[in-house]
C-alpha cells in the first residue's frame, strides 16, 4: 500500500514508518499537525505532540517525500474514549489534513501512526481513516516497550529528548540527550517508579534527528533553550525549544523497498505544503441506506423462521429461510431479508443493534464472502452501535443442502448497555485487525465473547504457512493477545473452545490438531502458574466442528469463550459434583452410568453452566437398542436413521440436558444459547429434526413445566459436515451446545 505517515517528529512515528517499509509498504508522504503560533512549543492536547515542530519542516528534504502540514485550529471537545465527528475538535484538523493528502496523492490508501498504548489516539486515527476510506497502520501497537526501545536504537534511530515530565527526569540534565544514552537510566526508572520506557505515559517526548529513512540529510541541532514549564521538586516539567539547526548532507542510500517512493516524489522531493480550509463535505456511503419494512413483503411467513431462547436479559435470536424448493433469490437477498427480520425482532423488544454482543454469520458459499459483508455493513454500523460493534464469526455451512437458503444469522443480545468492546481497526503486529463494524472481543457480565480467530499473521493479514497446526498455533497466539487486553489468558480462563475445521485439512493432519491445541494451552498455563500471581484455572470444553470452508480459505478458525470476573473473588468451579437437586426421569429414561460419558461440562457455581452433549453412533445404538436392525448390529449404519429413531434420540438429548442443568442448580429460564449441530449425512430433513426437538420440549413442559418455548423454538439448529470432541473424530450423530448463566 502507498502510505502517508503521521509524524510528530518523535521516535515512535519514525520507527512506525520503518516498520511499514519492512512489511512491503511505501511511504509516499508525511503529514504533521503543528500549533497555530510558531512561538508555542506545546499545546494542551491529548492527541498531538508538538514540541520540536520548528524542525519538522526539514523532514521533506531529509526523506525525499512531500510534507503536508496543518496548523491546529481545534481543541479537545469530544473527550469520550470513542470519537464521533465533532465540529471544532482538534481531530477534525487531522481529517482536513489527510483529506488534502488524499486529494493531492490519490494513490494513498493507508495512514501510518506511532501509537503504542493509547486507545484515545488510536481510536481517533481509526475514526478519521474510516471516514476517508483509508487503512490505519499501527505496527507498534501493544508491543513490549522495552523491546521496542531497544529495536529503535538497534535500527539507528537517533532521537533526543525534547520534553521530560516524570519522577527522576530533570530538564537541566536530561533534555537534549539521545535515547541510546538514556536507555539504561530509563530502565532504572521503570524498576524504581514504574515509568513507561517508551514514554507512553507522557514521561518524555523525543525528536528524531536521523534515521535510515533520512537518506538525503540528517538534522543537526546547533542551539536550543531549556524552557521550564513546572519547577516541581519531584517531577519537574521542561521542554527543549530549538533555536538554530542545519541539515548535513549524506551519501544517498535508502531502506530496501522505498526506492519507488523516491521515484514517485522526485519532482517534489522537498516540497512542503501547508493545508488550509475547513472540513470538506463527506459523501455518505451507499451502504448506509437502511432497507424498509416493505423489503419483506415478498417473503411468505412460512419461509422465514425465527428461534429465541427464553432468558429475558441475555438471549439468542436466530433467523433463517426455509427453502425446500431452492427458491432463494441469492445470498445477498437472503441475508438482507434475514438481517431486516432480526432488526424488526430487536425493535419489537425495544432493542437495537447496539444491544447485540455477538453475531454468527453462516453463509452457503465463502466465495461470496465479500457480497455478504457488503450486505452486513448496511445493517450493523458503528453509528448504530455507540457502545461498540458486536464481535463476529463467519462460517460456510451446507445450508443449501439442508434447504435453509443461502444465509443464516444468529445474534446474542443483552438488554443493557454494560458491554465492553475491543475494536482495533489498525493493522499492527499485535493481533488481526477488524476493519469494519465487527470487533475482536466483547465482554459482558464476566463473559468474554471472542470473535473467530484465524491463523492470520497480524502485520500482513495473510494466512500463515505451515498447514493446519501452524494456523491453529497462530490463531491461538492471536486469541491470547486479545485475552491479555482483558487481563486474562485463554489457558486459564477459557470455558469453551469451539474449533471450526475446514474439510480442506488433509485427513492425516486432523489427529494433530487437538494435540497442538492441548500442548499450546498447557504450556501457556504453566508460564502463568510460574508467575507470582496464581490465577484461577478453568478446565475448558473442546468442541470441533467440520465445515466446508472458512474465510480466506483458512483451514482452522477458533472461537474461545472466557470467564473473566471483574472481582478478585475466586470462582468455584465444579465438574462432577452435583447439587442436592435430583432431576426426575423424563421420556422413560433412567440414569445409567454411561450417560456421563456423553457430557462435557464446565460449571461455575451459581453463575455459569456450559454443557456439550455428544451423541456418537455407539451412544445412538444404546438409545435406540430396541429399534436397531441387523445392519446396525453389524456396524453398517452410516448415519442412516428412521424418523422414530431420531425422535427417541431427540428426547434423550432433552432428558440429559434437563438432568444436567437441574442438577447443577440452573433452569431452562437461564439458557442463554442452545445450538444443535446436525451432520449433513444424517439423511433426515432438518425441518423434521427441528419439529422433533420442538415436540420434545413441549412434552417436557407438559411433564415438568419450566421449559416453555413460547411461539418460537428455543434452540438453533445448525447444519454441519460433522462435529465431535476432536478434529480426527467429527462423526457425532447430534451435538448439543448449551450455555446457561445466572446474574
Descriptive account of the structure:
28% of the residues lie in helices and 25% in strands. With 743 residues, it is α+β, with helices and mostly antiparallel strands. Mean pLDDT is 89; it is low at 253-269, 284-297 and 574-583. Helix 4 crosses helix 5 and helix 10 packs parallel to helix 11 (369-379). The protein starts with a strand and ends with a strand.
The share of residues in helices is 25-40%
H/I helix tally:
18
Q: Main beta sheet, described?
A: 8 strands, mixed
DSSP summary, beta strand count: 31
Structure summary:
The protein is 28% helix and 25% strand.
Summarize this structure as a short list of keywords or feature phrases:
alpha+beta; 25% strand; 743 residues; single chain; 8-stranded mixed β-sheet
Write the layout of secondary structure elements.
Layout: E1 2-6, H1 11-22, E2 26-34, H2 53-56, H3 59-63, E3 67-71, H4 91-104, E4 110-112, H5 119-132, E5 135-137, H6 145-154, E6 158-164, H7 171-174, H8 179-193, E7 204-210, E8 217-230, E9 237-249, H9 259-264, E10 272-274, E11 304-308, E12 314-321, H10 331-348, E13 356-363, H11 369-379, E14 391-396, E15 407-414, E16 420-422, E17 441-444, E18 447-450, E19 453-454, E20 456-457, E21 462-463, H12 467-484, H13 490-493, E22 494-502, H14 510-529, E23 541-547, E24 556-563, E25 573-574, E26 599-604, E27 608-615, H15 617-623, H16 630-633, H17 643-663, E28 671-679, H18 686-704, E29 716-720, E30 722-724, E31 734-741
Parallel strand pairs: 1-2, 1-4, 2-3, 3-10, 4-5, 13-14, 22-23, 28-29
Antiparallel strand pairs: 6-7, 6-9, 8-9, 11-12, 12-15, 13-15, 16-17, 17-18, 18-24, 19-24, 20-21, 22-24, 23-30, 25-26, 26-27, 27-31, 28-31
Amino acid at each position: 500500500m502507498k502510505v502517508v505517515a503521521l509524524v510528530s517528529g518523535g521516535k515512535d512515528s519514525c520507527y512506525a514508518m520503518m516498520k511499514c517499509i519492512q512489511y512491503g509498504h511505501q511511504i509516499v508522504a508525511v503529514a504533521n499537525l503543528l500549533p497555530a503560533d510558531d512561538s508555542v512549543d506545546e499545546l494542551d492536547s491529548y492527541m498531538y505532540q508538538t514540541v520540536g515542530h520548528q524542525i519538522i519542516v526539514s523532514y521533506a528534504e531529509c526523506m525525499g517525500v512531500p510534507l503536508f502540514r496543518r496548523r491546529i485550529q481545534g481543541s479537545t471537545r469530544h473527550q469520550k474514549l470513542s470519537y464521533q465527528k465533532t465540529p471544532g475538535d482538534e481531530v477534525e484538523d487531522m481529517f482536513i489534513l489527510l483529506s488534502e493528502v488524499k486529494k493531492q496523492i490519490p494513490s494513498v490508501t493507508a495512514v501510518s501512526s506511532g501509537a503504542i498504548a493509547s486507545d484515545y489516539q488510536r481510536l481517533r486515527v481509526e475514526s478519521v481513516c474510516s471516514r476517508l476510506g483509508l487503512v490505519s497502520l499501527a505496527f507498534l501497537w501493544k508491543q513490549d516497550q522495552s523491546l521496542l526501545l531497544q529495536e529503535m536504537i538497534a535500527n539507528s534511530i537517533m532521537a533526543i529528548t525534547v520534553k521530560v515530565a516524570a519522577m527522576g527526569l530533570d530538564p537541566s540534565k536530561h533534555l537534549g540527550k539521545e535515547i541510546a544514552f538514556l536507555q539504561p537510566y530509563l530502565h532504572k526508572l521503570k524498576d524504581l517508579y514504574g515509568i513507561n520506557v517508551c514514554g507512553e505515559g507522557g514521561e518524555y517526548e523525543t525528536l528524531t534527528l536521523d534515521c535510515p529513512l533520512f537518506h538525503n540529510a540528517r538534522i543537526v541541532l546547533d542551539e536550543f533553550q531549556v524552557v521550564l514549564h513546572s519547577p516541581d521538586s519531584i517531577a519537574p516539567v521542561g521542554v527543549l525549544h530549538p533555536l538554530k539547526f542545519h541539515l548535513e548532507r549524506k551519501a544517498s542510500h535508502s531502506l530496501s523497498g522505498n526506492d519507488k517512493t523516491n521515484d514517485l516524489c522526485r519532482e517534489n522531493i522537498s516540497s512542503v505544503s501547508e493545508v488550509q480550509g475547513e472540513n470538506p463535505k463527506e459523501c455518505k456511503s451507499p451502504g448506509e441506506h437502511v432497507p424498509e419494512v416493505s423489503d419483506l413483503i415478498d417473503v411468505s411467513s412460512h419461509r422465514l423462521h425465527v428461534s429465541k431462547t427464553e432468558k429475558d436479559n441475555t438471549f439468542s435470536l436466530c433467523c433463517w429461510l426455509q427453502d425446500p424448493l431452492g427458491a432463494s433469490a441469492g445470498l445477498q437477498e437472503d441475508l438482507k431479508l434475514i438481517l431486516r427480520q432480526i432488526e424488526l425482532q430487536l425493535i419489537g423488544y425495544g432493542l437495537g443493534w447496539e444491544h447485540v454482543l455477538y453475531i454468527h454469520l453462516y453463509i452457503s458459499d465463502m466465495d461470496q464472502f465479500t457480497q455478504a459483508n457488503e450486505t452486513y455493513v448496511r445493517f450493523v454500523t458503528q453509528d448504530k452501535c455507540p457502545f461498540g460493534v458486536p464481535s463476529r464469526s463467519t462460517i460456510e455451512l451446507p445450508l443449501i443442502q439442508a434447504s435453509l437458503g443461502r444465509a443464516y444469522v444468529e445474534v446474542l443480545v443483552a438488554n443493557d448497555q454494560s458491554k465492553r468492546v475491543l475494536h482495533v481497526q489498525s493493522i499492527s503486529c499485535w493481533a488481526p485487525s477488524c476493519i469494519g463494524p465487527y470487533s475482536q472481543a466483547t465482554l459482558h457480565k464476566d463473559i468474554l465473547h471472542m470473535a473467530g480467530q484465524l491463523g492470520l499473521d497480524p502485520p500482513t493479514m495473510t494466512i500463515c504457512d505451515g498447514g493446519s497446526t501452524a494456523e491453529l498455533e497462530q490463531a491461538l497466539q492471536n486469541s491470547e493477545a486479545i485475552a491479555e487486553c482483558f487481563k486474562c489468558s485463554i489457558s486459564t480462563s477459557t470455558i469453551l473452545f469451539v474449533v471450526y475445521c475446514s474439510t480442506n485439512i488433509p485427513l492425516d493432519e486432523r489427529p494433530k490438531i487437538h494435540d497442538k491445541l492441548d500442548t499450546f494451552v498447557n504450556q501457556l498455563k504453566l508460564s502463568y502458574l510460574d508467575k507470582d500471581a496464581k490465577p484461577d484455572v478453568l478446565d475448558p470444553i473442546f468442541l470441533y466442528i467440520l465445515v466446508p470452508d472458512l474465510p480466506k480459505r483458512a483451514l482452522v478458525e477458533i472461537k474461545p469463550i472466557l470467564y473473566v470476573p471483574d472481582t478478585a473473588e475466586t470462582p468455584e468451579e465444579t465438574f462432577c459434583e452435583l447439587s442436592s437437586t435430583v432431576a426426575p426421569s423424563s421420556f422413560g429414561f433412567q440414569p445409567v452410568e454411561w450417560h456421563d460419558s456423553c457430557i462435557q461440562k464446565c460449571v461455575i457455581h451459581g453463575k455459569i453452566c456450559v454443557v456439550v452433549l455428544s451423541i456418537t453412533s455407539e451412544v445412538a445404538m444404546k438409545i435406540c437398542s430396541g429399534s436397531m436392525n441387523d445392519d446396525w448390529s453389524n456396524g453398517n449404519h452410516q448415519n442412516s436413521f428412521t424418523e422414530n429413531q431420531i425422535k427417541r434420540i431427540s428426547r434423550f438429548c432433552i432428558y440429559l440436558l434437563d438432568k444436567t442443568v437441574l442438577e447443577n442448580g440452573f433452569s431452562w429460564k437461564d439458557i442463554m444459547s442452545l445450538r444443535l449441530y446436525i451432520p449433513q449425512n444424517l439423511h433426515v430433513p432438518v425441518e423434521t429434526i427441528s419439529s422433533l426437538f420442538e415436540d420434545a420440549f413441549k412434552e417436557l413442559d407438559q411433564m415438568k413445566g419450566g421449559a416453555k418455548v413460547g411461539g418460537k423454538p428455543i434452540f438453533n439448529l445448525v447444519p454441519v459436515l460433522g462435529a465431535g470432541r476432536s478434529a480426527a473424530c467429527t462423526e457425532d450423530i447430534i451435538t448439543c451446545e448449551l450455555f446457561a448463566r445466572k446474574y
